[in-house]
Specification:
Oligomer: single chain
Distance between the termini: 31 Å
Shape: globular
CATH class: Mainly Alpha
Number of domains: 1
Strand content: under 5%
Structural class: mainly alpha
Largest sheet: none
Order of helices and strands: HHHHH
Radius of gyration: 14 Å
CATH architecture: Orthogonal Bundle
CATH superfamily: Tyrosine recombinase, N-terminal domain
CATH topology: DNA polymerase, domain 1
Length: 130
């Protein structure tokens, strides 16, 4: 890979090589992971004010992932099960990159005041509304 820090080449390898070949995941699972990563990249690029191709592996911070989890649950109306599936896709991608794993120990917890506060900040204009 040309740039080991860029997130885009890792996502491409994850979707085109790792899921279908290395792990032999079903086609529907591959599509689900693709959709989760697409939503995350759109959210992250808007939140960090960067183009999707400029995102780095280091951008997969626990704070950004938690904000994304709040976003998909509160703004997009996804269920907890869907949120957790999207989190699983992000965690598996992060593990494959070999980068530092963000501490997401409480990211799968039920919605809390943290999520409500996160969305209050978003409605104030700090986070993009997708």
């Amino acid at each position: 890979m040309k740039d080991k820090r860029g997130l885009a080449p890792w996502i491409k390898r994850f979707l085109l090589e790792y899921l279908p070949t290395d792990r032999n995941f079903a086609r529907n699972t591959q599509h689900s992971y693709r959709d989760a990563l697409r939503l995350f990249v759109i959210f992250a690029s808007g939140t960090l004010h960067r183009k999707p191709g400029e995102l780095l592996v280091e951008d997969l911070s626990a704070d950004l992932v938690r904000r994304f989890m709040c976003h998909i649950e509160e703004r997009r109306g996804c269920s907890v099960a869907t949120r957790n599936q999207r989190l699983a896709a992000l965690l598996r991608t992060t593990r494959m990159t070999g980068g530092p794993l963000p501490d997401l120990s409480n990211a799968m917890a039920a919605p809390s005041l943290e999520c409500t506060a996160c969305m209050a900040t978003a409605s104030a204009g700090a986070l993009p509304a997708f």
